[in-house]
Phospholipase A2
Amino acid sequence: ATVLPLPCPVSQADCYVSLWLPTATCERSRTKTVRNSDNPVWNETFYFRIQSQVKNVLELTVYDEDFATPDDHLLCALFDTAKLPLERTVILYFKPSPNATEELEVEFKLEVASGPHETIASNGVLVCRELCCLEVEVAEKTKQKSSKKELSLTVKGSFEGTQDIVLGPNGVVSPACPTEFHYIKYAEPTLDVMLPKKRRYHPWSCRYSTETGSPVVMLNSLPMGRKTTIAEVGITSRCCNCTCHQDLDMRFGFNLCSEEMAFLGKRKRYVASALKNVFHLPHDLQDQEVPVVAIITTGGGLKSMTGLYGSLMGLKKLNLLDCITYISGLSGTTWTMANLYRDAYWSQKDLDSHIGEAQKQATKCKMGCFSMDRMKYYNKQLCQRKEEGYRTSFIDLWGLMIEYLLNDGKDPHKLSDQQEALCDGQNPLPIYVSVCVRDSYSTNDFKEWVEFTPYEVGLLKYGAFVRTEHFGSEFFMGRLLKKVPESRICYLQGMWSSIFSVNLLQIWGLSHSSEDFWKRWTEDRIDEVDEDPVLPTRPHELRTRMYTPPGPLSSALRGALTDRFSVAQHHNFLKGYQLHNNYMENEHFCRWKDTVLDSRPNQLMQSPDQLGMIDAGFFINTSSAPLLRPQREVDVIIYLSYTTGSHTSSLDKACKYYSEQKIPFPTISLTDEDKKNLKECYIFQDSDLPGCPIVIFLPLVNDTFQEYKAPGVKRCCSEMEEGQLDLTSSCSPYCMFSVRYTDENYRKLLNLSEYNILNNSQMIMQALQTAMQRRRQKMSAC
């Protein structure tokens, strides 16, 4: 390196280079320190075995070593090794900018490795590497009656990490069964054995000394499947790699799961029959003619829960509920969905009993939520959850409070139980929506859509899904290694509708409508540069980048702004996966590529042991994202807005977001007058945009309901009070934080949401007819 900036004007730098290539090894490498030199030369060689189908980005960081304070960061280059030509030596110079005087000179050579090819599985975004399982048995040669010793075993980068073995009296070993480690075969794995301390007596000095042993075993040097003895430790390594997606314990792809496909085949019969009856069609619809109609909702606490009951009642009275294939929710609407799907045939029955039970819960006194008996119950349930293997947080406590708010007692139901309500296609498929977030990043900078169905839970961007009953269990490289019991649905409701995951940056955004003022404090500084000499590039290769870390003040401010009060924590089922070399060109990944880490694979896949998930309303208050997967082929979206704030705000944000992501969604064209005085129903469509759904927008507004108690039936003077609802003021009984309604307020809100559906039945019918016509035209074109 040459002409590095001097952090201290009275002394020269003591430089060393740190090398990090996490796809090849879990440990960082570093050069020796060259002291008192502004032009250090190291001449050291490092070897990495890389998998060419994986995105390998080498991070080269130059530090100035300090003894009293943390080492000073001088320069950091992020280099995609896919740029290197094969079997040629290349010397590259990395500079912070074209005119900078400081630079780092590195010589590269990419060679073909000898040995067998690695077996991998990939969906074009994620790569599942070859996995090995190491079995370790400990047998003490000399049995001591009273001694007790501990043995520490570590395989860095493995699923298990470090495990301790206790050597008890009389040769008893705990645990008695062999200790296992699961690790990536070609990641330079090592076994570190910390042997028990031994005391030796030295007669010439009349003193004891303590000796420790710490042998290190290179695991790739071990014969596969054969036992090897190291000191008092017997170890056996065996291969447990997969050759295809079917060998994994999780689903690895972007298509719909087989259970959902089977459901769609059954549901089409209900939808086709309902459409035939509603529109008095002379013949049965073919499968290709049946449009896919979906309900999406916005959150809003008890208001959205009650509003959704009313909207579904309206659709039921129009005989349109059987025309719905999907219903998605977030926040308070998940409360309605979870309650309805306890009944396996809820949509085939009258909804009065469900609505009556919901009214009972919405109007009851909530003070018992904080009683001493209830507190003891919370403590018992949280302790049990922790024993099961979950990491508990305040969100779990909030979930238990929701359980009390919505039920008379303990709710034993689980999300996977809702499969019973789908077995014959008798109800719409429920989809619950959340977003995954990261510490130290705002929700706008990092969020990844997560969908929950009774069949599976998955991250849309990666095409990675686990069975619903396995969500919360521990996975490594796609294998289920530690199963924990499935969560009760109240804990998921706490996550789907958490008001406690807010941070200061979002509060600022609510009051100032923009977070741009703070972006210089919360965003990483990364600049794209060209190598010298410039290497030929291909589309899948990443530009070389220079990273500048934040200073102490910026880091402190960033932490204060982005820190969330509480986040739901669940074991990360993506643990161990790496990104495919062409992941940035994958159409499925690009569809949801919207975080600041998407072009930084090391940081993107350096995911923590726990996934942090929050209410999707903290990003965009809509549950539409999973329904815009092209595999679901949604033709019509019934957009039910129950938000407490601006109804058009979340719709505008969704439209802007999908436009930026190049996801087909109609343009929202509302005048300023419309936004000030919203009507009950709007239809948005774009027939020229392939795959674009028709959107029926139904905001919960009190318009004609003030004068009409039913479509075409005017109120008399004594009934006018029934049409008066305060939905928007700060003193409204329907504010987001309200957890109790009066019977009158509940009934009014229920009737309003039902009326708005019934009063706009013609527009809904029109959209369904248009969707059927499009389906027929598409069939004719084929």
